[in-house]
Automatic annotation (TrEMBL):
Keyword Glycosyltransferase attached: no
Protein's name in the database: YCF48-related protein
Domain Photosynthesis system II assembly factor Ycf48/Hcf136-like: from-to ranges: 81-129, 166-246
Signal peptide: 1-33
Alphabetically ordered keywords of this record: Photosynthesis, Photosystem II, Signal
Entry keyword Signal: yes
Record lineage: Bacteria, Pseudomonadati, Pseudomonadota, Gammaproteobacteria, Pseudomonadales
SUPFAM superfamilies xrefs: Oligoxyloglucan reducing end-specific cellobiohydrolase
Native organism: Pseudomonas migulae
Pfam families assigned: PSII_BNR (PF14870)
Length: 367
């Protein structure tokens, strides 16, 4: 796959497109096509890290962890007031991050990178990259060559190997320290049952014959759900062994999914579109968000309110488990990619202009 096609294919998701452009600005075409040196170059410490393009944000205990371009990982232990840079072994852009407890966490990103930390995010090591992921896909296809579709699967895996490590992971979900999934472009999905020490290609377990991009993965009750481009919705009811397509109410891209503590689901994406389900994705009702901007992030606050945030920083709060949303004042600080409620109840966000913390009670996560 050439660079132009790579960028065009990822252009359907604003934040991935922006990050692809960041990569192209920092790497020569020759380097990207041949050595992919950023897979082996540690992230450089920089005083400007807080202003870098950041795409992922999570909270673990009192700590906020943000990830973004050039392998930057930032940590805050004071609800986003101050940040410091962690040690990371790669310089690729990171797209999402999750922790299962105060010590164990994972981050994913471009060039098929999966990172792991065992010390709360202070230091990270690489568990997987696109070169290894492609090789694993070929090995799995060769083992299953006699199964239906085996020849086609093998051809696709070999093409993936020939392309090189150009495909990003865009989201992840771990249920505990051992079991997790990473998902990304072109139906890429890998599973681990040993905390990332080994990975299994899981593409053949997903009902996605067109190979559409997978943008989000979340658990809801005993179900595991995937969302993606062109309205793709998939659900697993057998602990992730297989993912079956759900009837979608929408043909635009879903960029994320929120599963609430009460069992409701909210799938959200382009042009302010959001859809609500209270029957595990069996049926969906369109939500009137009143905005045109792409929805970038969704969280459940500790007072049981729900919050949707657009990439333009518009805040939508729900007091009825997602059945309706009220618009609040927009957040300042530019484009928003992800939002979290900090330990003190305020909201912290990240975007293309870096990190932002909001102590204003009119727009914060506080009631």
């Amino acid at each position: 796959m050439n660079v132009e096609n790579f960028v065009v294919s990822l252009g359907q998701r604003w934040r991935v497109c922006a990050l692809a452009l960041c990569l192209l600005a920092s790497m020569s075409l020759a380097a990207q096509a041949t050595t992919f040196a950023v897979l082996h170059q540690p992230a450089l410490p920089t005083a400007k890290a807080k202003r870098a393009a950041l795409l992922g944000l999570t909270r673990v205990g009192e700590r906020l962890v943000a990830v973004g371009e050039r392998g930057i990982v930032l940590l805050s232990d004071d609800s986003g007031v101050s940040w410091r840079q962690a040690s990371v072994p790669v310089s690729v852009s990171l797209t999402a991050v999750q922790f299962v407890d105060a010590e164990q966490g994972w981050a994913v990103g471009h060039l098929g990178v999966v990172l792991h930390t065992e010390d709360g995010g202070e230091t990270w090591h690489k568990q997987l990259d696109g070169e290894r992921a492609a090789a694993l896909a070929v090995q799995a296809a060769e083992r299953n060559g006699n199964q239906p579709g085996g020849a086609s699967n093998l051809a696709q895996a070999r093409q993936m190997l020939d392309d090189g490590p150009d495909k990003p992971f865009l989201d992840l979900y771990f249920s505990d320290r051992l079991h997790g999934y990473v998902v990304g472009a072109y139906n890429q999905i890998y599973r681990t049952d040993d905390g990332g020490r080994s990975w299994q290609p899981w593409m053949q377990h997903v009902d996605n014959p067109q190979g559409l991009n997978l943008y989000g993965i979340r658990a809801s009750g005993n179900d595991l759900l995937l969302v993606g481009e062109r309205g793709l919705l998939l659900r697993s009811t057998d602990a992730g062994h297989s993912f079956q397509a759900l009837k979608s109410p929408y043909d635009g891209s879903f960029f994320g999914l929120l599963g609430t503590r009460g069992g409701a689901l909210i799938a959200y994406g382009l042009r302010g579109n959001a859809w609500w389900s209270d029957d595990r994705g069996g049926s969906w009702r369109h939500l009137d968000t009143g905005i045109e901007s792409t929805l970038a992030s969704a969280i459940e606050l500790r007072d049981d309110r729900l919050l949707l945030v657009s990439q333009s920083g518009e805040l939508l709060f729900s007091h009825d488990q997602g059945r309706s949303f009220d618009k609040r004042q927009s957040r300042s600080g530019g484009t928003v990619a992800a939002v979290q409620q900090a330990a003190d109840g305020s909201l912290a966000s990240v975007g293309l202009s870096g990190v932002a913390a909001d102590q204003d009670p009119r727009t914060s996560g506080k009631p």
